[in-house]
């Protein structure tokens, strides 16, 4: 986690501490790995009875359900069993059966007073595709609460800037992390990137995606990497998963959220949505 701010005098250190505290709070609430997190309690208990969660957790679940509806199922936080099956998430107590239904639209009941219920015992949620962006947004909110005039919060590929000054962000090529793919100019907006993991095996690049296509419960393969610009980091974070699954078919969804995208297809073609090229400079 990297936080960069324009100095606000005596309160600068307190502002940065508050931003890191906000990120830590999101982790405590929404980590799949922490046994006492809201998320872990949901996965263990809510098929029996509803439980109340922190307002932040409820807010992220609301956004996830809405993104699922708007994306026609491409964004789905109930793919945790598929991630467990390929070893990207630890197992829960007992065996999980990966089934195509129910999905997030009818699997999660959002109730009054921040109560949540999962409708069946086989459902498990992972918020890894949206919560990191939400943490960045909360860190920005904390900084702005101290009247910091400008700054940047970068959570390893999910970042957001605020203030009048422009920022330039270097985007690495996911197929070759030592190579610059593009230089992106940002002012008062968020950026998130997702890519397949690549390893060099016998001189050949190979890799699998950690993004699960809900339609198949298998890793998405059409897109090598996706970067999304959006008004909030939570939305940018979530939309990268949809773009990895849907490719250029995600255009209407991007427009709905006021977002733009850069994507690399499996054949190496780089595409940028039409409302973004003026701020993206592709490397030679």
Descriptive report:
- This protein folds into 2 domains: 33-118, T-fold, CATH 1.10.3980; 166-282, Roll (T-fold), CATH 3.10.520.
- It has 8 helices and 17 strands.
- It has helices at residues 12-30, 38-45, 55-70, 80-85, 104-107, 131-144, 233-246, 251-256; strands at 2-5, 51-52, 108-111, 115-118, 151-154, 158-162, 167-173, 176-186, 190-195, 197-201, 204-208, 212-213, 218-219, 223-230, 260-265, 270-272, 280-282.
- It is globular, with a radius of gyration of 19 Å.
- The two termini are 30 Å apart.
- The chain has a 7-stranded antiparallel β-sheet.
- Residues 93-102 have low confidence and may be disordered.
- 31% of the residues lie in helices and 29% in strands.
- It has 284 residues and is α+β, with helices and mostly antiparallel strands.
How far from one another are the termini? Answer: 30 Å
Oligomer: single chain
Number of E strands:
17
Structural class based on helices, strands and sheet pairing:
alpha+beta
Average residue pLDDT: 88
Please, how many helices?
Answer: 8
What's the CATH first level of the largest domain? Alpha Beta
* Widest β-sheet, arrangement of strands: 1-5-6-9-14-15-16
Which value, in Å, is the CA radius of gyration? 19 Å
Largest sheet, in brief, is:
7 strands, antiparallel
Strand content: 25-35%
Can you tell me the number of structural domains?
A: 2
CATH superfamily of the largest domain: ApbE-like domains
Q: How would you spell out the order of helices and strands?
A: EHHEHHHEEHEEEEEEEEEEHHEEE
Low-pLDDT segments, ≥5 res: 93-102
What would the CATH topology of the largest domain be?
T-fold
Helix content: 25-40%
Overall, the morphology is globular
């Amino acid at each position: 986690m990297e936080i960069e701010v324009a100095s606000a005098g005596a309160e600068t250190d307190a502002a940065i501490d508050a931003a890191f505290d906000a990120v830590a709070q999101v982790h405590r609430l929404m980590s799949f790995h922490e046994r006492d997190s809201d998320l872990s309690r949901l996965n263990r208990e809510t098929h029996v009875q509803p439980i109340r969660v922190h307002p932040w957790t409820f807010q992220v679940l609301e956004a996830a359900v809405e993104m699922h509806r708007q994306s026609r199922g491409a964004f789905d936080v109930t793919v945790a069993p598929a991630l467990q099956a390929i070893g990207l998430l630890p197992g829960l107590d007992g065996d999980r059966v990966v089934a195509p239904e129910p999905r997030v639209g009818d699997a999660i009941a959002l109730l009054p007073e921040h109560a949540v219920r999962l409708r069946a015992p086989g459902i498990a949620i992972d918020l890894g595709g949206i919560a990191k962006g939400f943490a960045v947004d909360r860190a920005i909110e904390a900084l702005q609460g101290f009247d910091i005039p400008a700054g940047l919060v970068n959570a390893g590929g999910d970042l957001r800037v605020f203030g009048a000054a422009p920022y330039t962000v270097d985007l690495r090529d996911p197929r070759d992390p030592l190579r610059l793919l593009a230089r992106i100019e940002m002012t008062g907006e968020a950026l998130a990137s997702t890519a397949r993991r690549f390893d060099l095996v016998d001189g050949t690049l190979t890799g699998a995606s950690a993004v699960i296509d809900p339609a198949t419960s298998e890793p998405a393969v059409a897109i090598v990497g996706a970067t999304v610009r959006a008004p909030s980091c939570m939305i940018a974070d979530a939309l990268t998963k949809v773009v990895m699954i849907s490719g250029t078919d995600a255009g209407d969804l991007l427009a709905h959220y006021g977002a733009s995208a850069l994507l690399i297809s499996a054949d190496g073609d780089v595409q940028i949505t039409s409302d973004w090229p003026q701020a993206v400079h592709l490397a030679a």
